[in-house]
Amino acid sequence: MSKHALIVGATGITGSNLAQHLLAQDGWSVSGLSRSVSPIAGVETLKCDLVDPDSVRGALVGARPSHVFITAWSRQETEVENCRVNGAIVRNVLDGLQGGSVEHVALATGTKHYLGPFESYAKTQPETPFREEQERLPGENFYYVQEDEVFAAAARDGFTWSIHRPHTLIGYAVGNAMNMAATLAVYASICRETGRPFIFPGSPQQWQAATDVTDARLLARHLQWAATTKAAANLAFNVVNGEVFRWKWLWPRIAAYFDIEAAAYPGVLNPLESQMADAEATWDEMVRKYGLQPNALSRVASFWHSDADLGRQVETFNDMGRSRKLGFMEYQDTTQSFTDAFDRLRADRIIP
């Protein structure tokens, strides 16, 4: 039977990879609900302002999706505002679709479910590996608010749901706050151009500790799997590559891709925001010199977000047992997650 996906946030790293994946499968059509038009051929864009309920309702007139994938969020200055705005995004969409065609709603959140919001990020140390049944942390967290909106709408409208908690997302995307692959590609390219040392910017704990990441392509496959697998209904899932690694092992491999040496780790934080504070003019010159797409440095790299991930002082990795027991057995090599993203960024003239 044919399935129609509505992807909320179809132009982001998760939404765009999901759209490409579903369009390559038999029996799927895709609409994207977002402020901007999706560049992916085959996606019907429904333009709206996700925080405006009237705008969302108007965009959804006549929409009859069988599956809804919510991958959008909007960063605010405080977690109270994050809860208000990002909870409203989920509520506006599900209220706009109330009743009728929706069989399943999948919500993508993340590991801040276990580590806390930006304001208190990684200030506590939950037991690793993180498991889906761990209790919520005390205090505000917009992921919890978004989950509760899904649960309430499911009870009202009768659809099934799934919650997906990726770790650090790796994949092809431009202009996305959470894409570490693009951020590290820009950093390495600037180091190669200027002779700066390619220094791991994070904490000693992240340099040494076990960790993992999530390839956006694997997340797309997991979203489809849970949305169409009866046994996966009404459950939350961690979603990671399946490979646990240490940054002291991966860092030289990233350096090798860019034909530079990995600098010796100095044992202290060297945040990218500080290292790259004077790099805008260098980047602009590189764009001209190499004929790159005319993207500002701030559009391609999100130094602040990668600093948050790499600066954690606690160990962070996730258990995938729940998915494995229900039949999702896919695995993704992490070095290849990065190098595949770098290849696409080069092919599209985003980086030299």
Automatic annotation (TrEMBL):
CDD domains: 5beta-POR_like_SDR_a. Residues 99-352 form the PRISE-like Rossmann-fold domain. InterPro entries: NAD(P)-bd_dom_sf (IPR036291), PRISE-like_Rossmann-fold (IPR055222). It holds the Pfam family PRISE. Gene3D superfamilies: NAD(P)-binding Rossmann-like Domain. This is SDR family oxidoreductase.
